[in-house]
Amino acid sequence: DAGVIQSPRHEVTEMGQEVTLRCKPISGHDYLFWYRQTMMRGLELLIYFNNNVPIDDSGMPEDRFSAKMPNASFSTLKIQPSEPRDSAVYFCASYEPETYGYTFGSGTRLTVV
Amino acid sequence: AQTVTQSQPEMSVQEAETVTLSCTYDTSESDYYLFWYKQPPSRQMILVIRQEAYKQQNATENRFSVNFQKAAKSFSLKISDSQLGDAAMYFCAYLVEEGGSEKLVFGKGTKLTVNP
User: Fold this and answer.
1) C-beta of residue B69 within 8 angstroms of C-beta of residue B10
2) Average pLDDT per block of 10 residues along chain A, 113 residues long
C-alpha cells in the first residue's frame, strides 16, 4: 500500500482565492481525519469521517472551510475564500480501529499571500 | 476535555547519549492509548511507539522506550544511543474515544536537536 496520499505537497495562493486540498486514504480504513498544524496552535483536528460520513466538524474554524468525502478513496478540504491566517500545513490521516493504526499523509503546506 | 502537555519546547542531546522527553496528559478514562510521533523536516508524521494503558509493561522499540506512569498520568519517551537522524519534532498524543470513534489529541511538541 502506498499509504495516505495528499496533494498538492505545496500550495501558494493569493488571498481570496479558492483552495482545494486532496487526500487518498489507505484502502480499507474506515476513518479519515483532517488536521491543521501551525506553530502557534500545534496540531488541531478539523473534521473526521466514518465510512464517508462527516462525524465531527467542530474543529472547522469558519464557514470558509468545507470538507467532503464522496467515496471511500477520496476526500477534499476546501477553503473559500482563503486568507493569510489559513497558512499552515494540512494533514490527512486514515485510521483502522481494529489495530489502532493511524497513518498520516505527508501534508500540504499552504501559503496564502 | 482531554489535554496533552509537553513541557519542553526544545531539547538537545549529544550523539550516542540518552535523552528523555516528557509528556503528561489529563483523562478520566481507565483504558486508552498513548503514542509518540516523530516529525522530521520532511514533515512526515512517523509513529515511534505506542502504549496501551491497561498494560503495565513499558513499551520498547529498539532504542526507543517509554516510562508510563498511569497514576501520575505521565508518558515520557527515552531515546538511547541518540543518532543524528533522531533530530526532529516529537509529539505525544492521546487517543480519545468520542461518539463511537477514536481521535488523536496532540501535545505542542518538543524539538530535539542531536549534536555531533
Assistant:
1) no
2) 91 97 94 94 92 91 94 96 97 86 93 98
